[in-house]
Amino acid sequence: MICAGLLLSFAIQAQSTPTQAPVLEPGLSAVWHGAHGSPEGSISHERFERFLGRTFKSKLVGQDALKHILQIELIETAANEAGLTADADELDSRIRAAREAAKEAGYELEVLVIERGLSMDEFSRLMRNSLLHEMLVRQELAIPAEQPVTGAQLQDWSQAHMQALLQLAKNAPAGLALDAPPYHVTEAEIGKVLRRSLGPTRLHEYLEQLVLQEAMPAWAAVQSLTLTDDILEAEINWRRQTVTDNPAYAGATYEGLLGTQGATVESVRKSSELRVAAYLRLYSEREYPDSWFASLSEKELADYDLKFGPSRFVSWFLLRTVDKKMTELDRDSTMAIAELEAYKARAKTEGFHTLAGKFSEDDPTRRRKGALGWLHKIEAGIDPSVCASAFAAPLNQVIGPIPVKGGQALLIVENERPGLPQADFQKEVRRSFHKSLRKQFLQEIGFLSAYSPL
């Protein structure tokens, strides 16, 4: 929840990193001029806020925004029922204190407030709300006037009064984040809080997605490209396989992951987000047709085969080392090799994964009992020596120790897959260009964002 003090700190941070580039008319979040015969367009702040609210109302960041809105309404309602009013002198004192804090940091309070998209009246309301919050907690807990109200007491009060409402929010109809009279919170209200609190980079990324959802169907229609059900289903199946193959998901299914986000495969099928991914498939086929693959040299094809050809399922056991021992506790390569040789011997009886799950010093994979997952001969984010050793190793045999970045490691290869058929291989290569094609498409239509990171 965004209290007044936290809002001020966010404002100071926002002042040092401007969130809006002065290129658009007031009230607009994005504009584009169109390309390839597709029309120009724009996104207003209000529409962007509705998009943010609809997208995030069931997620953690949206729930935090809902709590912020509810806290204000709950406090004002409860204070009115209790006959409590904020003392004008105390309110003025707190605003003066905020102004002094801003001044000491080298800023003007009014500038900071405007930077967060607020008026001084709205800022005063937040400060008044904060004061009423303390008064309600003091009254409910019979806290003496000379004793301060703690942050934990304020938080406990808010959680106790919000719990039932947050449960009701799970069943809010379309367009609303909460429908529990007298409390009605719209998706647009959630989005308004998010537009003020998210950083410029994230706002820019979400605007990119919204503009793609708006512009790509029109572009495809002009290009006579048809989005069919089999293309949508192929994208869903790709995501399903990605979840299955990634050990970071610990055996979860794509459907299960969607369920944790309040979504289903059917809701994904109907989503604009899936259609953007499917349009990118069509776009990639147009930019990288079969003739493009036919024009590649043998070396270029071989390079792509390293990244998208045969793969192996690999697990490892890492011990970190230092180049130069500074204390007796530091471990150099010689010590790490000796330790790993001992673990390698123990693995014959205790099991490689059992030992990796207890003693490997790579935290993410230790929680997965050492599993790195399916690796190609070249894999982004993976030490090349790991990939090279994995493809030189026999199956189901612990190898190493081998030197890797930051230490020494044991490896085991437990499964392998041959290269894909040509058509599937080309699809994987094309999909690797989706991120760059998003940028290319947005550049071609002249996309301008009010939140372009500077």
Radius of gyration: 28 Å
Percentage of residues in DSSP E strands? 5-15%
Number of strands: 9
pLDDT < 50 runs, ≥5 residues = 1-20
| Count of domain modules | 3
The average pLDDT score comes to: 89
Q: Estimate percent helicity.
A: 55-70%
What order do the helices and strands follow? HEEHHHHHHEEHHHHHHHHEHHHEHEEHHE
User: What can be said about the biggest beta sheet?
Assistant: 4 strands, antiparallel
Number of helices: 21
Q: Report the span from N to C terminus.
A: 28 Å
Protein model, in words:
- By secondary structure, the protein is of the alpha+beta class.
- The chain has three domains: about 5-25 and about 40-195, no CATH class; about 200-295 and about 420-450, no CATH class; about 310-415, Chitinase A, domain 3.
- The protein is about 60% helix and about 10% strand.
- The protein contains 21 helices and nine strands.
- The protein has a four-stranded antiparallel sheet with strand order 6-5-8-7, with helices on both faces. A three-stranded antiparallel sheet has the order 2-1-9. Strands 3-4 form a two-stranded antiparallel sheet.
- Helix 2 crosses helix 8 and helix 3 crosses helix 8.
In short:
The chain folds into 3 domains: 177 residues, no CATH class; 124 residues, no CATH class; 108 residues, Chitinase A, domain 3, CATH 3.10.50.40. The longest helix has 23 residues.
Annotation keywords:
59% helix; 4-stranded antiparallel beta sheet; globular; Chitinase A, domain 3; alpha+beta
